[in-house]
Amino acid sequence: MTQVDVIVIGAGAAGLMCAAQAGYRGRNVTVLDMGKKPGRKILISGGGRCNFTNENASPDNYLCGNPHFVKSCLSRYTQHDFIELVDRHGLAYHHKTLGQLFCDNSAQDIVDILLTECEWAGVNIALRNEVLSVTKTDAGYEVITEQDSYQCESLVVASGGLTMPKLGASPVGYKIAEQFGLTVLPTMAALVPFTLHQHDKDRFDGLSGISIPCLVTSEDGTQFKENILFTHRGLSGPAILQISSFWRAGQTVYINLLPELDLKQQLEQWRQSQGQKSLKNTLATILPKRFVEMLHDTKAIPDCNVNQLSHAQIDALHDYIHNWQIKPNGTEGYRTAEVTLGGVDTDELSSKTFEAKKSPGLYFIGEVTDVTGWLGGYNFQYAWSCGFAAGQYC
Ligand code: FDA
User: Which positions fall inside the RsdA/BaiN/AoA(So)-like Rossmann fold-like domain (predicted)?
Assistant: First the structure.
């Protein structure tokens, strides 16, 4: 039996940040992970370049049963604090769109920074070490792994969500929470592509690879203005991934295909200037040609010249293009999702320390908690912020 002050389950973004912070406080910390490498999700994130934070991160960018829960940790360790950390380590990075920051070289640079911090803080990382069970003892917690058993005062659960089972996702964190009487809210794949019903699959066959800048709206009125992407499996692209977190089975997604333009006005203008041209060819100057051909072939738009359109047809076309409606069949699920919605109910945790109110010395941080960020570096920022917070107390 190995005796330590703090055990952290999970060498991911939240666990490594927390471990380094606790180590700097002089705590004897061991991180346990069943993988053969630390930070495996960081390594594949952002297409291998890790979108490690967002300059605009604020509590409004998170879904959580209690919208106030993230305020404390995000304000105590902000995106600017993390940027200051990576600057200190000399990380080369760049700004993409919408405040997103990416590594210039590789996501490995972020893992290296976290590992360096852990090393400086004297943290021990034990890999290939799956946690099998946890029990409460008089002195704290006993953790049994496939290799060893540990006794600790503080146990930090940073075991992540259910996405990407190939990368070691496991429900262990939810099981530990339930074992200690904490509520775990239902989980669901989020930031995930949509799959389509057969009739849409047939309609969209051949559109794979087409990307359109759109304004996408969910039934609850949440909106994202980014690209949608047709794939051979269904619909993806940043706007779709974003809205998937707000979509529920059976609901419709509303897509404004020309958010920067008033189609009615445009059609009136074309009637004057190029009325003899076919509607199909004219529309193909403002929307991808293959997409317009699909609308034409499926008779979603009239087969006529622009000046043959009646006022009623113009109104209908305007509504159709600005409010294109898709009812997804489902999502691609945990296999390709970036995050897991739901998880350990934040009402069970202190928003200051992340300690379980019912079980002193037990902490839950990162994706295992019921906090889900938007696409764009917000999920890592939450991992850094909550890891930092718990690291001050565990
Ligand atoms: P994380 O899942 O990172 O770590 C949990 C660790 O616990 C794992 O290493 C696992 O092996 C370990 N573990 C689980 N069960 C165990 C057990 N029983 N015993 C021992 N160890 C166990 N976010 C973002 O902000 N920007 C981005 O660019 C991306 N990109 C991205 C791409 C893809 C493909 C995915 C899947 C996800 C993203 N994300 C993202 C989301 C981001 O990766 C995610 O929010 C964080 O990795 C969550 O960090 P955690 O530390 O909470 O869990």
Answer: 5-392
